[in-house]
Amino acid sequence: MRTIMIAALSAAGFALLGTAAAIAADNSAEASKKSAPLSPPNIGAKAKSEADSKGAASAAANAGAADAEPAPRVIARRQGIASYYGYGKRRPRTASGQRFDPNKMTAAHMTYPFGTKVRVTNKRNGKSVIVTINDRGPNTPGRIIDVSTGAANVLGMRRDGLVPVVIERLERHGG
User: Fold this and answer.
1) Whether pTM exceeds 0.90
2) Which residue in 7, 20, 33, 105 is deepest, having the highest Cβ count within 10 Å?
3) For the chain, what is the domain count?
4) What are phi and psi of 157, to 5 degrees?
Protein backbone atom coordinates (compact mmCIF):
# COMPACT_ATOMS: atom_id res chain seq x y z
CA MET A 1 0.00 0.00 0.00
CA ARG A 2 2.82 2.41 0.91
CA THR A 3 4.56 1.68 -2.39
CA ILE A 4 1.44 2.61 -4.38
CA MET A 5 0.97 5.85 -2.45
CA ILE A 6 4.62 6.80 -2.86
CA ALA A 7 4.47 6.03 -6.57
CA ALA A 8 1.30 8.11 -6.94
CA LEU A 9 2.81 11.02 -5.04
CA SER A 10 6.01 10.81 -7.06
CA ALA A 11 4.06 10.83 -10.34
CA ALA A 12 2.00 13.81 -9.19
CA GLY A 13 5.20 15.61 -8.21
CA PHE A 14 6.71 14.92 -11.63
CA ALA A 15 3.50 16.17 -13.26
CA LEU A 16 3.79 19.46 -11.44
CA LEU A 17 7.36 19.78 -12.60
CA GLY A 18 6.35 19.01 -16.16
CA THR A 19 8.47 15.86 -16.44
CA ALA A 20 5.51 13.50 -16.58
CA ALA A 21 4.69 14.64 -20.12
CA ALA A 22 6.53 11.66 -21.61
CA ILE A 23 4.55 9.25 -19.44
CA ALA A 24 1.32 11.03 -20.40
CA ALA A 25 2.18 10.81 -24.09
CA ASP A 26 2.65 7.02 -23.81
CA ASN A 27 -0.72 6.62 -22.14
CA SER A 28 -2.66 9.22 -24.15
CA ALA A 29 -3.66 6.83 -26.91
CA GLU A 30 -4.90 4.28 -24.40
CA ALA A 31 -6.69 6.95 -22.34
CA SER A 32 -8.49 8.38 -25.36
CA LYS A 33 -9.88 4.94 -26.32
CA LYS A 34 -11.65 4.43 -23.01
CA SER A 35 -12.59 6.71 -20.18
CA ALA A 36 -10.77 5.16 -17.25
CA PRO A 37 -10.33 6.72 -13.83
CA LEU A 38 -7.56 9.29 -13.77
CA SER A 39 -4.16 7.83 -13.02
CA PRO A 40 -1.06 9.90 -12.27
CA PRO A 41 0.01 10.08 -15.96
CA ASN A 42 -3.46 11.36 -16.94
CA ILE A 43 -3.37 13.90 -14.17
CA GLY A 44 -0.07 15.16 -15.56
CA ALA A 45 -1.56 15.50 -19.03
CA LYS A 46 -4.56 17.35 -17.61
CA ALA A 47 -2.34 19.73 -15.63
CA LYS A 48 -0.23 20.40 -18.73
CA SER A 49 -3.28 21.12 -20.90
CA GLU A 50 -4.74 23.44 -18.24
CA ALA A 51 -1.41 25.27 -18.01
CA ASP A 52 -1.30 25.57 -21.81
CA SER A 53 -4.85 26.97 -21.91
CA LYS A 54 -4.11 29.44 -19.11
CA GLY A 55 -0.98 30.55 -20.96
CA ALA A 56 -2.97 31.01 -24.17
CA ALA A 57 -5.65 32.98 -22.32
CA SER A 58 -2.98 35.17 -20.72
CA ALA A 59 -1.32 35.78 -24.09
CA ALA A 60 -4.69 36.68 -25.61
CA ALA A 61 -5.38 39.12 -22.77
CA ASN A 62 -1.98 40.75 -23.25
CA ALA A 63 -2.55 41.02 -27.00
CA GLY A 64 -5.92 42.66 -26.32
CA ALA A 65 -4.27 45.11 -23.94
CA ALA A 66 -1.87 46.17 -26.68
CA ASP A 67 -4.82 46.92 -28.98
CA ALA A 68 -6.74 48.85 -26.28
CA GLU A 69 -7.04 52.61 -26.48
CA PRO A 70 -4.49 54.56 -24.47
CA ALA A 71 -5.58 55.96 -21.12
CA PRO A 72 -7.35 59.30 -21.48
CA ARG A 73 -5.25 62.39 -20.82
CA VAL A 74 -6.12 64.57 -17.82
CA ILE A 75 -6.76 68.15 -18.91
CA ALA A 76 -7.87 69.66 -15.57
CA ARG A 77 -7.57 68.66 -11.91
CA ARG A 78 -9.38 70.06 -8.87
CA GLN A 79 -9.82 69.08 -5.25
CA GLY A 80 -12.85 69.62 -3.07
CA ILE A 81 -15.86 68.01 -1.45
CA ALA A 82 -18.16 65.59 -3.28
CA SER A 83 -21.67 64.59 -2.38
CA TYR A 84 -24.07 62.14 -3.95
CA TYR A 85 -27.69 62.34 -4.91
CA GLY A 86 -30.59 60.10 -5.74
CA TYR A 87 -34.30 60.59 -6.03
CA GLY A 88 -35.62 57.34 -4.57
CA LYS A 89 -38.24 55.94 -6.94
CA ARG A 90 -38.58 59.21 -8.87
CA ARG A 91 -36.64 59.47 -12.13
CA PRO A 92 -36.72 63.13 -13.11
CA ARG A 93 -34.94 64.50 -16.14
CA THR A 94 -31.45 65.87 -15.66
CA ALA A 95 -30.37 69.26 -16.98
CA SER A 96 -29.11 67.49 -20.12
CA GLY A 97 -32.58 66.07 -20.76
CA GLN A 98 -31.73 62.46 -19.87
CA ARG A 99 -33.76 60.52 -17.32
CA PHE A 100 -31.84 60.27 -14.07
CA ASP A 101 -30.70 56.70 -13.40
CA PRO A 102 -29.17 56.34 -9.93
CA ASN A 103 -27.27 53.19 -10.97
CA LYS A 104 -25.40 54.79 -13.88
CA MET A 105 -21.98 56.38 -13.46
CA THR A 106 -23.09 59.99 -13.87
CA ALA A 107 -22.53 63.26 -12.04
CA ALA A 108 -23.56 66.89 -11.81
CA HIS A 109 -21.04 69.70 -12.24
CA MET A 110 -21.70 73.44 -12.46
CA THR A 111 -19.56 74.24 -15.52
CA TYR A 112 -18.24 71.16 -17.35
CA PRO A 113 -20.07 70.48 -20.63
CA PHE A 114 -22.56 67.63 -20.75
CA GLY A 115 -20.91 64.42 -21.87
CA THR A 116 -17.58 65.29 -20.26
CA LYS A 117 -15.83 62.32 -18.64
CA VAL A 118 -14.45 62.96 -15.17
CA ARG A 119 -12.42 60.65 -12.94
CA VAL A 120 -13.47 61.11 -9.32
CA THR A 121 -11.10 59.77 -6.64
CA ASN A 122 -12.07 59.48 -2.99
CA LYS A 123 -9.06 60.82 -1.06
CA ARG A 124 -9.96 58.84 2.06
CA ASN A 125 -9.78 55.38 0.49
CA GLY A 126 -8.21 55.86 -2.96
CA LYS A 127 -11.20 54.41 -4.84
CA SER A 128 -12.03 56.07 -8.14
CA VAL A 129 -14.68 55.99 -10.83
CA ILE A 130 -15.12 57.63 -14.21
CA VAL A 131 -18.45 59.44 -14.51
CA THR A 132 -20.19 61.33 -17.30
CA ILE A 133 -21.48 64.82 -16.57
CA ASN A 134 -25.19 64.94 -17.40
CA ASP A 135 -26.59 67.37 -14.84
CA ARG A 136 -25.92 70.74 -13.18
CA GLY A 137 -24.97 71.05 -9.56
CA PRO A 138 -24.07 70.81 -6.79
CA ASN A 139 -26.22 73.62 -5.56
CA THR A 140 -24.58 73.78 -2.15
CA PRO A 141 -21.61 76.12 -1.66
CA GLY A 142 -18.29 74.38 -1.02
CA ARG A 143 -19.01 71.26 -3.06
CA ILE A 144 -17.44 70.62 -6.45
CA ILE A 145 -19.38 67.59 -7.75
CA ASP A 146 -22.51 65.55 -7.06
CA VAL A 147 -22.22 61.91 -8.11
CA SER A 148 -25.03 59.42 -8.69
CA THR A 149 -25.81 56.79 -6.07
CA GLY A 150 -24.14 54.11 -8.22
CA ALA A 151 -20.93 56.13 -8.42
CA ALA A 152 -21.13 56.81 -4.68
CA ASN A 153 -21.24 53.05 -4.09
CA VAL A 154 -18.08 52.55 -6.16
CA LEU A 155 -16.35 55.39 -4.32
CA GLY A 156 -17.34 53.96 -0.93
CA MET A 157 -18.96 57.22 0.19
CA ARG A 158 -22.57 56.21 0.86
CA ARG A 159 -22.16 56.07 4.64
CA ASP A 160 -20.33 59.38 4.94
CA GLY A 161 -22.30 61.31 2.31
CA LEU A 162 -19.58 63.93 1.87
CA VAL A 163 -15.97 63.05 1.08
CA PRO A 164 -12.85 64.92 -0.04
CA VAL A 165 -12.13 64.09 -3.68
CA VAL A 166 -9.86 64.85 -6.58
CA ILE A 167 -11.71 65.32 -9.86
CA GLU A 168 -9.85 65.02 -13.13
CA ARG A 169 -11.45 66.19 -16.35
CA LEU A 170 -10.49 63.75 -19.09
CA GLU A 171 -9.78 64.63 -22.69
CA ARG A 172 -12.48 63.62 -25.16
CA HIS A 173 -11.39 60.94 -27.62
CA GLY A 174 -11.11 62.17 -31.15
CA GLY A 175 -10.77 65.81 -30.26
Assistant:
1) no
2) 20
3) 2
4) -115, 10
